[in-house]
Write a structure and sequence with these properties.
single chain; alpha/beta; Rossmann fold; 3 domains; binds adenosine-5'-triphosphate
Length: 700
């Protein structure tokens, strides 16, 4: 698995921004008027008074409303006007996804006619646009969890709104469980608030706090599960949606949904009224190949029909590139936005009138007994499908093209399985431990993860040195690991690299592993691509190769930056990437991630040193870090993963595919036609016993 990042701390505050003092213009008034009319027209507007009353009466309230009814943008404003931010208190609104937190905050700031970062702001991993005047704070649920590490009673908040709860993202589930505890703690008299040890919250003493209001918002109709979890909490339904969306199905199943999506894109482009298109695909690779195919097919159209602009949105894309999809298309052009399910909920992309939904989603699947985590493409659920079509009816009537027959829709699951049931729990458990919650098996989850999954994660955390043998958070390693916004195995790798004097190399590795595909391998030019990358391919494996790609690009960039100046950097980098068959977007993202994680480890007091050309030391450090994922070659040329005993194969994209070394460590195991291991380094098998003796005991 790539080192999927949890949410982290904050930077770049806008505390000192000056207010905008320009006098309003006529066009400003007309924009204000339009916004006021728009707000009044939203279905939620007619129930403002009732919702405020319900929030006053109930400490937990569940609000269910159709997509686009105005929940995310309006409810916080209603509560602000009703006085919930008196005495400097804040309303926190959490989202499962970063992109939603940012774009909705921007929109609400615009609606309130304030500068982003003043009354309305957002806070996501490594990016904080809030100030001391912020009262409506949009953020990811992971970020609020991290805030709870520093302020266990969330004392600055009067209300927390948990949005898109039906998605059941792992952080949302953990957050809801934590909020239940915080609510109880804040309801107690001050003298009883310090609850330590099993199931408690650490450090809850302090001045008197008002009760915390909790609002859970969801578009799906099943509020029951949340209501039961919160002891029969009241649910309110907001009726109505803003604009109708026509749903179209295919007559027959499509054998190739990529091709079907392409055909539909061009049908809409050539035959339908103006309006942008949003297509839901499963991942970066798919998005990039559809992007290429759209551009190729456009070349065969007459000049006047070529005004179609493909744009991408996926998680690994740097924020500023994601934001391009939100800008209006150039005059006369139609945008076609190729997105993963990160564009599925909460967001409004201006201009979208058409949605194309092939009906699939890539999700994580975890087999705790084998410790295997993989990404699998599965049919989307009904709830996801409804969210997708909802993206088309937000500024006017829309159309949604589902690329499967209607009878298939009926067979879909109502909602996706809670993520907590299908992920490696080591990250979640480490966070709970850091929050002072010790009894994980007895913890009050909405849906309990399996006992095997909990036990496996606890064992992994013990092996990584985060927990003691009796599962207590180990000081200082465990605390340091919980502070880094990374999966524990990668946090541990960075801490170890500090002692091996190769922190710089490990930072590069972790950053490069956090992007989906660093190399660009067009099918028709595969040999050419490999040859052009020969000079930075390391016979020792993929990690060392990533380090040399990163370094070479860095050196090249530094040299050119001096020669040509800052503003040409992006162009120069793009050319270097094309020449070397490196994915420009991925490398850019990896460079960003490197800077961010480096900031974190420096804040923790680590000195970023490099082992220079002594790659042996780096390989030993990789072995010490990833010893849980080691594989040994067998007589028939296949490999056996030492931890699970699974028979695995080196993935053809690995630089070790042909080399077939005796023993390797790897980061990712994926199941397609076979079980493949990806991101490998050749190691000496004796290192395992030497560097991880607690796991690989030798018989003497
Ligand atoms: N960035 C934006 N630009 C233009 N209009 C927007 C923007 N964000 C929201 N809107 C408008 O406000 C309406 C309500 O959006 P809001 O996000 O509050 O709805 P919601 O009920 O939370 O929907 P969902 O459950 O789909 O997130 C949208 O349908 C759209 O018309």
């Amino acid at each position: 698995m790539p080192p999927t990042m949890a949410q982290g701390e904050v930077k770049n505050t806008v505390e000192n921004r000056k207010p905008n003092l320009k006098p309003p213009t006529a066009s400003h008034y007309s924009v204000r008027q339009k916004i006021a009319e728009h707000r009044k027209s939203l279905p939620i507007a007619s129930v403002e008074k009732r919702l405020v009353e319900e929030v006053n009466k109930n400490d937990v309230l569940i609000i269910v409303g159709e997509t686009g009814s105005g929940k995310t943008t309006q409810l916080p404003q209603f509560l602000y006007s009703a006085g919930f931010c008196r005495e400097g208190k804040m309303i926190g609104i959490t989202q499962p996804r970063r992109i939603a937190a940012v774009t909705v905050a921007k929109r609400v700031a615009e609606e309130c006619d304030v500068e982003l970062g003043q009354r309305v702001g957002y806070s996501i991993r490594f990016d904080d646009s809030t100030s001391s005047s912020t009262r409506l704070k949009y953020m990811t649920d992971g970020l609020l969890l991290r805030e709870a590490l520093l302020d266990p009673q969330l004392s600055r908040y009067s209300v927390i709104i948990v949005d898109e709860a039906h998605e059941r993202a792992v952080h949302t589930d953990v957050l809801l469980a934590l909020l239940k505890k915080v609510q109880r703690a804040r309801a107690k008299p001050v003298s009883e608030r310090t609850v330590n040890g099993n199931g408690g919250l650490r450090g809850c003493q302090g001045r008197k706090l008002s009760p915390l209001k909790l609002i859970i918002m969801s578009a799906s109709l099943d509020a029951r599960v949340f209501s039961e979890y919160f002891g029969g909490a009241k649910a309110v339904h907001v009726q109505g949606r803003q604009f109708p969306v026509d749903i179209m199905y295919t007559v027959h199943p499509e054998s190739d949904y990529i091709d079907a999506a392409l055909v539909t894109i061009f049908q809409i482009h050539l035959e339908e009224n103006p309006g942008d298109i949003l297509v839901f695909l499963t991942g970066q690779d798919e998005i990039e190949s559809v992007d290429r195919l759209v551009r190729e097919r456009l070349q065969h159209l007459p000049e006047e029909s070529r005004k179609l602009l493909p744009l991408a949105i996926f998680a690994a894309l740097p924020s500023e590139q994601q934001m391009r999809a939100f800008a209006p298309a150039p005059a006369g052009f139609r945008k076609v936005i190729l997105a993963t399910n990160i564009a599925e909920t909460s967001i409004t992309i201006p201009g979208i009138r058409y949605v194309i939904d092939p009906g699939f989603v890539k999700t994580r699947h975890y087999e705790p007994s084998k410790g295997i985590e993989s990404l699998v493409v599965v049919p989307a659920s009904k709830a996801q499908t409804l969210q997708r079509s909802g993206r088309a009816g937000r500024e006017g009537p829309g159309k949604c093209f589902r690329l499967y027959p209607e009878r298939e829709f009926e067979k879909l699951e109502d909602s996706a399985k809670p993520e907590i049931k299908s992920v490696n729990l080591s990250n979640v458990i480490l966070q709970l431990k850091a929050l002072g919650i010790d009894d994980i098996v007895g913890f009050d989850f909405i849906d309990k993860p399996s006992r095997v999954a909990i036990i496996k994660a606890l064992a992994e955390l013990r092996l990584l040195g985060a927990l003691t043998d009796d599962c207590k958070l180990e000081d200082p390693t465990g605390y340091q690991m919980s502070r880094l916004p990374l999966e524990p195995v990668y946090s541990r790798a960075l801490i170890l690299a500090n002692t091996f004097n190769c922190l710089e190399e490990m930072l590069i590795t972790v950053a490069m592993l956090s992007v989906e595909s660093i190399f660009y391998d067009p099918r028709e030019k595969r040999d050419e691509a490999r040859a052009s990358r020969n000079h930075f391919t390391s016979v020792e494996g993929d990690h060392l190769t990533y380090v040399s790609v990163y370094r070479e690009s860095d050196e090249f960039l530094e040299k050119r930056r001096k020669e040509s100046g800052e503003n040409k950097v992006d162009k120069i980098m793009k050319k270097w990437c094309i020449d070397n068959f490196v994915n420009h977007r991925s490398l850019k993202h990896a460079r960003d991630t490197y800077r961010q994680i480096r900031g974190h480890v420096e804040q923790m007091g680590f000195n970023v040193s490099s082992c220079g050309n002594d790659m042996l030391e780096f390989r030993r450090c990789l072995s010490a870090s990833f010893f849980l994922k080691a594989a040994q070659r067998q007589l028939d040329g296949t490999y056996r993963a030492l931890e699970s005993g699974e028979i695995v194969h080196i993935h053809p994209t690995s630089v070790l595919f042909r080399g077939k070394p005796e023993c390797v460590i790897f980061n990712e195991l994926m199941q397609t036609s076979k079980k493949y291991i990806k991101n490998l380094t050749r190691i000496d098998p004796l290192w395992l016993a030497e560097l991880a003796p607690h796991h690989y005991k030798t018989d003497e």
